[in-house]
Amino acid sequence: MVNRADTGFDDPARTTASVRRRDQSAHIAGPTMSDARPRPTFLYIGTPKSGSTWIYEALRSHPQVFVPVAKDLQFFDNNYRLGWDWYLRHFKNAGSAVAVGDLSQDYYWSAPAAARIRAELPEIRLICCLREPGDFAISALRWIHNHTGRLGSNFGEIAEHLSFARLLSYRENLEIYFDLFPRDQILVVFYEDLKAEPRTFIRQLYQFIGVDPDYEPAVLSSRSNVTRPPRSRMLLRLAFETAQLLRRLGAANLVGAVRWNPIFDKLVYRGTMRREDRFAQIELDRIAERVRQEAAGELDALARLIGKPLPAQWLRAAHRRS
Asked: What DSSP line would sit under 144-201, residue for residue?
């Protein structure tokens, strides 16, 4: 969730067809049918700031599931040039796992990623978790502001950036995947359901990827990756830029190992809000209301696309001031 000038950001004007044409000249051959190395059977494609870390931990703990140490391999969007050998190395320890997964939360808004996934893994199962647009905007704005200054120096500037608008375009981004994949290979779930009924939520994911749905992960009673203020925004941005560089150099597993280290977590984040954080929340709430009003006209079309009703919280929030 950064400026894709640095990490392959999609131009919103691109179409799937034009992406396919451009990819033909730079296509990296995928594994052949005789290649017995483990490869993904499912992908979590997005969205960011919608429970992906909780989902990752719930999947990682399941005895029939293998996911790499590195969450966000970003292979099909940012690291495709590194090739299939690099990608498949992350799954070499999958052993007899029933389901093997890659959780890269920015695939959902990358048309090149969608086309590459369809070409290389046509039978893959895709998971996407959506969050109420206003709440999503608040969490995403905090994350972007803390981790990178490329989209703007304050919340207002970031919210006006074309990249942020693209991130919020749920229907437009998912339409590409529904055009490319059979409907029964795509599972769209909601962050609100994760919060309300985590056991039912993860059971649905387990069933979708074909593993024992009765397994109960330890994270059922916990929250993961709650947005917290950094001790130093400069330090956090330096850590983020270093992580992005290491990913581009093919060291995603190292990034994952550091990311899950509790010492790193304590060094970078603090647990309490300061006075300036409370003032910032006022601006975030104002932006969230605007996002909700702009998204309201798209909700019916989104529900038709994914083939299920949206959570009641979405509809209440959208019409709160209409």
From this structure: HHHH-STT-SSHHHHHHSHHHHHHT-HHHHHHHHHHHS-GGGEEEEEHHHHHH-HHHH
